[in-house]
Design a protein that fits this description.
Elements: H1 2-14, E1 22-26, E2 29-34, H2 44-61, H3 67-93, H4 119-134, H5 148-168
Antiparallel strand pairs: 1-2
C-alpha cells in the first residue's frame, strides 16, 4: 500500500493520468484482476457507495439469511464503517493535512481545519455503535443485530457529519456525499 500511495502521489505531482488495477486471489485461484481498488485505498465517498450497495443487498436478503449469516454480514459491515469513520477524520476533519503513508504535513491546508465542539461527540457515537458489534459481545447482554434500515442510518450519521464539516469550510475542495435512501422504492 505505501508503494501504491507513492505512485499515485508521483502521478498527481507530474500531472500524469493513472489507472489502478486490483489483483487478488479469488478462491484458490490467484491473479483475479479488477478495476475496483482495494477497500483500504478507497476514499470515504467510494466507501459510502459500497455501503449503499450492501444495504440494498442486505435489505433483500435479510429474510432468507440465518441469524448467524446475517450477524456475520453485520459485523463485517460495521467493521468497515468503523474504519470509514477513521478515514473520514483524516479526509474531512483534518482535510488530509496528515495522511497515512504520506510524505509530510500539508501545512497550507491547516487554514481550513476547524474542529467543532460537537465533532468529538458525533465521532465517538458513530464509532462506538460500530465497536459494540465488532468486538465480542457479552453473552448475557447480546441483542439482535441492527436491521438493514438501522445500518443505513448509521452510515447516514457519518454522511451527515461529513456534510456538516463541508458546510463549515466554504471554498474547501471537499467532495459531498449523498446519504443512503432507505425508502422501500429506492
Amino acid at each position: 500500500m505505501p508503494f501504491i500511495a507513492m505512485l499515485v502521489t508521483a502521478c498527481a505531482q507530474q500531472g500524469v493520468p493513472h489507472a489502478g488495477m486490483h489483483v487478488q486471489r479469488l478462491g484458490l485461484q490467484a491473479g483475479h484482476c479488477s478495476d475496483d481498488p482495494p477497500w483500504d485505498t478507497k476514499k470515504v465517498k467510494a466507501r459510502v457507495e459500497e455501503f449503499r450497495t450492501t444495504f440494498y443487498r442486505l435489505r433483500k436478503a435479510r429474510d432468507t439469511l440465518s441469524d448467524d449469516a446475517y450477524g456475520a454480514e453485520v459485523v463485517a459491515f460495521l467493521g468497515r464503517l468503523r474504519n470509514t469513520w477513521e478515514r473520514a477524520i483524516e479526509e474531512y476533519l483534518f482535510n488530509e493535512v496528515i495522511q497515512r503513508f504520506g510524505y509530510g504535513v500539508k501545512t497550507l491546508s491547516l487554514k481550513t481545519v476547524d474542529v467543532a465542539a460537537t465533532d468529538y461527540a458525533i465521532i465517538e457515537a458513530g464509532m462506538g455503535v460500530c465497536s459494540a458489534w465488532v468486538h465480542d459481545p457479552s453473552q448475557g447482554l447480546s441483542s439482535p443485530p441492527p436491521t438493514p434500515q438501522q445500518l443505513a442510518e448509521m452510515v447516514n450519521d457519518l454522511v451527515h457529519w461529513t456534510q456538516s464539516v463541508c458546510a463549515r469550510r466554504k471554498g474547501a475542495n471537499m467532495t459531498a456525499i449523498r446519504p443512503i435512501e432507505t425508502g422501500m422504492g429506492a
